[in-house]
């Protein structure tokens, strides 16, 4: 299809090399919670956000003036200023600061996307992220952060929503079975994603008390008009979308 843009979904950073297309736009998704937290921090005034794959490198960023955020398996890391709850990143705590963040899954996806044009996407910036994607000319790879390099439900649902809405427009197409898998999950979930996720995921059902406030925040759509864009090793606000 001449000048049409291919859309694909990669369910895990571990599979990224198999889905990468030269020059594609990578849309990183970690609904619960990394991209939701990153978008919230940037909307509340963070100057830049550096996603870091490992704990030691994140802590080392303090020497360069960063505040640091980190979690493993949902829990805030000792010695860190923040965990990974988006509700922690209030304007009073994050405005005009450079933030380094390391998480179990989301920052691993950004590590896979290094050297490519990449943005952070979630429901809370859905419209803005869609506008950014639509404004470009590249093929689009929706990269789910998943869970410990495995597929998860929540990121697949959001990737499926992006794919469905893009493919409803002229100028986008797909040849990928991943799209069909995500669309089938969307159909099964209906309008109540959170109920479907908790019914379907023992992992998240077991963490509901820990994550319920963050989940409620993450399920709100279009509350921020900011798109974090990866420039070199930092996320900064995209100037146009």
UniProtKB/TrEMBL annotation:
Chain ranges passing through the membrane: none
KW Magnesium (keyword) present: yes
Keyword Hydrolase listed: yes
Gene3D superfamilies reported for this sequence: ComB-like
Entry keyword set: Hydrolase, Magnesium
Cofactor: Mg(2+)
Pfam family, one: 2-ph_phosp
Enzyme Commission number(s) of this protein: 3.1.3.71
Domain of life of the organism encoding this protein: Bacteria
MF terms (GO), sorted A to Z: 2-phosphosulfolactate phosphatase activity; magnesium ion binding; sulfopyruvate decarboxylase activity
Reaction catalysed by this enzyme: (2R)-O-phospho-3-sulfolactate + H2O = (2R)-3-sulfolactate + phosphate
Family affiliation: Belongs to the ComB family.
Name assigned to this protein: Probable 2-phosphosulfolactate phosphatase
Species: Salinivirga cyanobacteriivorans
């Amino acid at each position: 299809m001449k000048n049409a843009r291919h859309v694909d979904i990669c369910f895990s950073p571990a599979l990224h090399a198999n889905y990468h297309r030269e020059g594609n736009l990578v849309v990183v998704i970690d609904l619960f919670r990394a991209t939701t937290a990153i978008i919230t921090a940037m909307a509340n005034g963070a100057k830049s956000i550096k996603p870091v794959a490992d704990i030691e490198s994140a802590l080392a960023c303090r020497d360069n003036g960063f505040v640091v955020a980190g979690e493993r398996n949902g829990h805030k890391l000792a010695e860190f200023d923040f965990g990974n709850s988006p509700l922690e990143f209030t304007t009073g705590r994050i405005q005009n600061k450079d933030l380094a963040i390391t998480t179990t899954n989301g920052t691993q996806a950004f590590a896979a996307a290094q050297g490519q044009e990449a943005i952070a996407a979630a429901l809370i910036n859905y419209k803005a992220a869609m506008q950014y994607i639509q404004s470009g000319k590249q093929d689009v790879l929706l990269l789910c952060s998943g869970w410990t390099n495995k597929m998860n439900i929540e990121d697949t649902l959001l990737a499926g929503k992006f794919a469905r809405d893009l493919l409803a427009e002229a100028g986008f197409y797909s040849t990928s079975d991943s799209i069909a898998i995500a669309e089938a999950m969307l159909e099964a979930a209906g309008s109540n994603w959170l109920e479907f996720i908790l019914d379907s995921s023992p992992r998240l059902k077991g963490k509901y008390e820990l994550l319920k406030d963050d989940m409620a925040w993450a399920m709100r759509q279009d509350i921020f008009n900011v798109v974090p864009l990866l420039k070199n090793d930092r996320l900064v606000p995209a100037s146009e979308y």
